[in-house]
Write a structure and sequence with these properties.
With 293 residues, the protein is mainly α. It has one domain. It is built from 13 helices and two strands. The longest helix has 27 residues. It is globular.
Length: 293
C-alpha cells in the first residue's frame, strides 16, 4: 500500500511539472529543456526555508513560485526573442548553468552533498505526517494546477498563445506583443513548476543537484509530447504512463542497474516513435512535426 501511495505521489508531482511545461510547449509552441531548473528552484527554496527558518508549506510555495518566476524572466527576456532551435539551445544553456550553480555554490546549496533533513510539510498548524495525507496535498495542488491551465487555455490570453503557436508572424501582424505573451507564459510556467519542486523536497526530505539534470528536463518534455501537447489531459496521461513504466521493469525482476539503463532506452525509444509516427501524442492537439521535418 505504501509503495502504491509513493507512485501516486510521484505521478501527482510530475502532473504539475508537465502541465506547467505544457503551457509553453503545448500552447505557445516553445520547446524548453530548462524545466528542471524551475523544479530545482522550488525544491531548493523549500529546503533552505524550512531547514533554516522552519517556514510552513504555504510560505515555501509562495516564495518558490516568485523566485522561479523571476528566474524564468531572466532567461525569458533574452531567449524568447529568438525562435525554434535557437530557443532550445538557449534553454539548454540555462539548464546547464542552473546545475553548475547548484553543484558549486557550496555555501548555499552544500554542492554535491545536498541538503538533508528537510522537515515534513506543515499547513496552518497541521503537520503532513503520513503518505496518505501527503497524497491528498499533492492531489489538491495538481488539480489546482490543471484548473489554472484550463482557465488560461480558455481565456483570450490563451487564445493568443495558440495563435503564436500556429503562426507567430500572423499574431504579430494582428497587433499582439508576441514577446510579452511568450515571456509572461514562460514566467507563469516556471512558477507552477516550482510547486512540484517544493512538494518533492518535503516528500523526499533531501535534495541534491543530481535530481535536476538536463535528463530530468527531457523526461518532463517526454511526458508532454507522449501524453499530448496542447491538451489539458495529455500531461496527466503522459505522467501516469511514464512514471508507472519503470515499475513494470521491477515486476519482471530486472536488477536495479540494468533496469535504469533499460528505462532510459524505453523513454528514448518512445519519444522517438511518437515524434516520428504520432507527433500529436496520445491526446494532443498540436504536433511538433514542423520542427522535426
Amino acid at each position: 500500500m505504501q509503495y502504491l501511495l509513493h507512485i501516486l505521489i510521484l505521478i501527482g508531482i510530475y502532473v504539475i511539472l508537465s502541465s506547467s511545461l505544457n503551457l509553453v510547449a503545448g500552447y505557445a509552441g516553445l520547446i524548453s529543456v530548462a524545466h528542471a531548473s524551475f523544479f530545482a528552484v522550488g525544491a531548493y527554496a523549500a529546503a533552505l526555508l524550512s531547514v533554516h527558518f522552519g517556514s510552513p508549506l504555504i510560505v515555501n510555495l509562495l516564495c518558490a513560485a516568485l523566485l522561479a518566476a523571476l528566474c524564468s524572466l531572466l532567461i525569458g527576456f533574452p531567449s524568447l526573442r529568438i525562435r525554434d532551435d535557437y530557443f532550445v539551445i538557449a534553454t539548454f544553456g540555462f539548464q546547464v548553468l542552473t546545475f553548475s550553480v547548484l553543484n558549486n555554490w557550496v555555501k548555499l546549496t552544500r554542492g554535491p552533498l545536498g541538503i538533508p533533513g528537510i522537515p515534513r510539510a506543515s499547513l496552518f498548524g497541521w503537520e503532513v505526517s503520513s503518505q496518505f495525507e501527503f497524497l491528498v496535498v499533492v492531489t489538491v495542488l495538481s488539480l489546482a494546477t490543471i484548473w489554472c491551465c484550463k482557465v488560461i487555455s480558455e481565456s483570450p490570453y490563451g487564445r493568443v498563445l495558440k495563435a503564436i503557436r500556429e503562426d507567430e508572424m500572423f499574431a504579430t501582424a494582428a497587433g499582439k506583443n508576441v514577446a510579452a505573451f511568450k515571456i509572461s507564459a514562460f514566467a507563469f510556467a516556471g512558477g507552477l513548476a516550482s510547486i512540484g519542486g517544493v512538494l518533492y523536497a518535503h516528500y523526499i526530505s533531501f535534495v541534491d543537484p543530481s535530481s535536476f539534470t538536463v535528463m530530468e528536463s527531457i523526461f518532463i518534455l517526454s511526458i508532454v509530447i507522449i501524453g499530448g501537447a496542447g491538451s489539458l489531459l495529455g500531461p496527466v496521461v503522459g505522467a501516469v504512463l511514464l512514471v508507472s513504466l519503470p515499475e513494470a521493469l521491477r515486476l519482471i525482476g530486472l536488477q536495479s542497474a540494468i533496469a535504469a539503463n533499460v528505462r532510459q532506452i524505453l523513454y528514448g525509444g518512445l519519444l522517438l516513435a511518437f515524434m516520428l509516427w504520432r507527433p500529436r501524442g496520445l491526446l494532443g492537439r498540436f504536433s511538433f512535426e514542423k520542427d522535426v521535418h
